Amino acid sequence: MSKPATSRFYISRKIIVGEWSWEKLNCIVCALEIKEGDERIYCPYCGSAAHRDHILEWLKTHSNCPYCNRKLTLKELKHGG
């Protein structure tokens, strides 16, 4: 009786280190933190936030959300903070 064929495989382990904070909110245009009191606007599709001035400037030359890439107009933006 012969032995059954076996195959060898290797599993490598990767350690990924990152930081997540529910309290920290970064602008999807400039990637800087949106601080308490900063005027911010949210994408109605993905919920991503941006500094008000940054997203308004972005929409002068683009017609999409910089994060989810969905079509976006000024009328659709959700204001907050």
Task: Describe the model.
- With 81 residues, the chain is low in regular secondary structure.
- The chain has a single domain, classed as Zinc/RING finger domain, C3HC4 (zinc finger) (Herpes Virus-1), CATH 3.30.40.10.
- The protein is built from one helix and three strands.
- It has one helix at residues 52-61, and strands at residues 40-42, 49-51, 78-80.
- A three-stranded antiparallel beta sheet has the order 2-1-3.
- A hairpin with a 6-residue loop joins strand 1 and strand 2 (49-51).
- The longest helix has 10 residues, at 52-61.
- The chain is elongated.
- The model has no long low-confidence stretch (mean pLDDT 84).
Quaternary structure:
single chain
* CA-CA gap between termini: 75 Å
- How many separate helices? 1
Could you tell me the strand content as a percent range? 5-15%
What is the CATH first-level class name?
A: Alpha Beta
Q: How is the biggest beta sheet arranged? A: 3 strands, antiparallel
Q: How many whole angstroms does the radius of gyration measure?
A: 22 Å
CATH superfamily: Zinc/RING finger domain, C3HC4 (zinc finger)
InterPro entries: Znf_RING, Znf_RING/FYVE/PHD
Organism: Odinarchaeota yellowstonii (strain LCB_4)
Protein name: RING-type domain-containing protein
Domain RING-type: 26-69
